[in-house]
Design brief:
Keywords: Hydrolase, Signal. The protein has 479 residues and is an alpha/beta fold. The protein has 2 domains: 134 residues, Urease, subunit C, domain 1 (Roll), CATH 2.30.40.10; 274 residues, Metal-dependent hydrolases (TIM Barrel, Alpha-Beta Barrel). It contains 14 helices and 18 strands. Strands 1, 2, 3, 4, 5, 14, 15, 16, 17 and 18 form a 10-stranded mixed β-sheet that branches. Strands 9-10-11-12-13 form a 5-stranded parallel β-sheet, with helices on both faces. A 3-stranded parallel β-sheet has the order 6-7-8. α1 runs antiparallel to α9 and α10 packs across α12.
Length: 479
């Protein structure tokens, strides 16, 4: 039997087996204040807390525990979740959110060795153009909606729309409760956007990143070694060894630097060797993993189990719609199957969930306020319906979009199931998520109803994605 096909079937079963036909959370007491007490299975890095109690006050988690003491809540509304799981919102640390109305690239069978091949046609390889479909501003809003609807509350995406997801790389996009400094997101750390590749030296563009600049940043999240082979690995050499190339170019640049430090997150890092990752681990730098784009464009992804065993903090990121995943859940499913098919290893659901929550917060440098359900942190909370009692982490990761019962950002409800609509406030409307109707509250942020905004985009790639997203890029490793 074809093992990749068998594993895809197993992964699909995991995704489908957590679907619920009815809401599992209900408001058992309607309070007179904006405070909310959630009672149910709460996901933590120490394991599921059952029964767990979370008291949300003024946009933050005021109390949290597994005893009934939290029920002394005065005028709070009480939400009881019998089979659902309560999780921190997902954190997507790698997006190009302005490309959210572009359809996925068509499958051509072409594999690339470096991103500049498909970007600019290097080595006479076919280019994959990705022009923004319509208004860039609308595309950004649409992409943030897609992530919110699937349980993501924070994004590092190089662009932003106010009021929707938290944008961790923009001061004006942090939303209530978070304060600067913010992340610095770099697509071309070596100033190589024209399509410059090198091997044996660092003669890239005239304005590469340098050690002094990175030391002064909160977080530097940069695309490094996106590809396979010596040219991709050379990028890491030029950013990790100050003695690798000491000869400057007259036009600027040319010298190597060393930026590998705890405040640096490496996006992709596909071209790194195990010895390179040992250095990343030694320096306490982090990695953002985007397996679907890796597989779709380059035919393989990195052996993430090596990174985890080396002690590297790994976060998950969807990359972008043309070659990546439309949602964090689909990216996790790809990571699960690609790791098994390429390396014969199985990632535990809790490990993947941490990549989507607390690890994302650590990579972005906001783990003091985001990424886990703890007293004092912001109430970025998502409730996933289902009945996967044996593995509540899988229930959160692989829940069908129509089974998401609540998306809350800083105590503000953005999405609510029918049974939880009494928790909403402000301008809200009903929207169909497959066979389920939900209440969404995004009109204040959009300046328009969701229905009218959707109609204005004239049939672009959907923001609501029950089931498998259409034309999803391949996650079948062939290298």
């Amino acid at each position: 039997m074809n093992m990749p096909r068998l594993w895809r079937a197993v992964a699909l079963f995991l995704a489908l087996c957590v679907r619920a036909t009815a809401a599992d959370c209900t408001v058992v007491h309607q309070g007179s204040s904006q405070d909310v007490l959630f009672v149910g299975t709460v996901l933590t890095s120490e394991g599921p807390l059952t029964p767990g109690h979370i008291l949300v006050q003024s946009g933050k988690i005021a109390r949290m525990g597994n005893d009934a003491a939290c029920q002394a809540i005065g005028e709070a509304s009480v939400v009881e979740c019998k089979r659902s799981v309560i999780s921190p919102g997902f954190i997507n640390t790698h997006e190009h959110i302005d490309c959210s109305t572009i359809n996925p690239f068509p499958t051509t069978g072409t594999l690339y060795d470096h991103r500049h091949e498909w970007r600019v046609g290097l080595n006479d390889r076919p280019m994959l153009p990705a022009p923004v479909n319509g208004s860039e501003t609308d595309a950004i809003k649409w992409g943030e909606l897609r992530h919110i609807f699937s349980g993501t509350t924070s994004i590092v995406g190089n662009h932003m729309a106010p009021g929707l997801a938290r944008n961790l790389d923009f001061v004006s996009g942090l939303e209530d409760g978070l304060e600067s400094p913010v992340d610095t997101y770099a697509v071309f750390p070596l100033d190589d956007a024209p399509g410059i590749v090198r091997k044996g030296d660092c003669d890239y563009g005239p304005n590469p990143i340098d050690q002094k600049t990175v030391k002064g940043l909160h977080r530097y999240i940069g695309h490094v070694a996106e590809g396979i082979g010596a040219e991709a690995q050379n990028e890491f050499r030029c950013l990790s060894d100050i003695n690798y190339d000491t000869r400057p170019l007259s036009s600027g640049g040319g010298r190597s630097t060393d930026i590998i430090a705890p405040n640096v997150g490496l996006v992709h890092a596909l071209g790194l060797s195990e010895a390179d990752f040992d250095l990343v681990a030694e320096r306490n730098a982090t990695v953002v993993w985007s397996p679907r784009s890796n597989v779709a464009l380059y035919g393989k992804t990195l052996n993430v189990t090596y990174l985890l065993e080396a002690g590297i903090t790994v976060a998950l990121g969807t990359d972008w719609l043309p070659s990546g995943s439309a949602t964090m859940g689909r990216e996790a499913l790809c990571g699960l199957s690609a790791t098994h098919n390429s390396y014969g290893r199985t990632l535990e659901s809790k490990t993947l969930w941490e990549m989507m929550t607390i690890n994302g917060a650590k990579v972005a440098g906001f783990d003091a306020m985001l990424g886990s359900i703890e007293v004092g942190k912001l109430a970025d909370i998502v409730i996933f319906g289902g009945d996967n009692i044996k593995d509540p982490f899988s229930q959160a990761i692989y829940a069908a979009e129509e089974d998401i019962e609540l998306v809350m950002r800083g105590g503000k409800v953005l999405v609510a199931s029918h049974s939880l609509k009494h928790l909403t406030a402000g301008a809200c409307e009903s929207a169909a998520f497959g066979h389920v109707s939900k209440t969404i509250c995004v009109e204040d942020e959009l300046g328009n109803t969701y229905k009218d905004f959707e109609a204005s985009l004239d049939g672009v790639y959907p923001a609501i994605l029950p089931g498998v997203p259409p034309n999803e890029p391949s996650c079948d490793p062939i290298r």
